[in-house]
Amino acid sequence: MIERRKRERIEVDEVGYVFGDGASLRCRVVNMSDQGAAIELLSKRYMNSTFKLMLERDRSIRSCRLIWSSGNLIGVAFQELW
Is there a contact between 77 and 64 (Cβ–Cβ < 8 Å)? Predict the structure, then answer.
């Protein structure tokens, strides 16, 4: 498989929350770079094309754009840092 990412992702195992439209969902951030992340959801579900991600450890919030999904895994690109 050809790697298409511009930056290498670092493996992490962090609790996070995806939120938007008045609801939040606990998740696990599998890997990330300064440009995006792979996120594991508790179950396969529909995701909006844009949403926010908050990391539990440091409470940082990032605006995300959904790039891909496969089962309960999703890939996102960060739109901006807060």
Answer: yes
Joined together, the tokens standing for residue 43 give 């179950």
Q: How far apart are CA 33 and CA 77, in angstroms?
A: 9
CA pair distance 15, 13, nearest whole angstrom = 7
Q: What angle do CA 80, 3, 31 make, to 5 degrees?
A: 50
CA atoms within 13 A on the CB side of 3: 5
**4 pLDDT above the threshold of 60:** no
Burial of 64 (0-12, 13-18, 19+ CB in 10 A): buried
In angstroms, the CA 73 to CA 59 distance is 22
Predicted TM-score (pTM) of this structure: 0.84
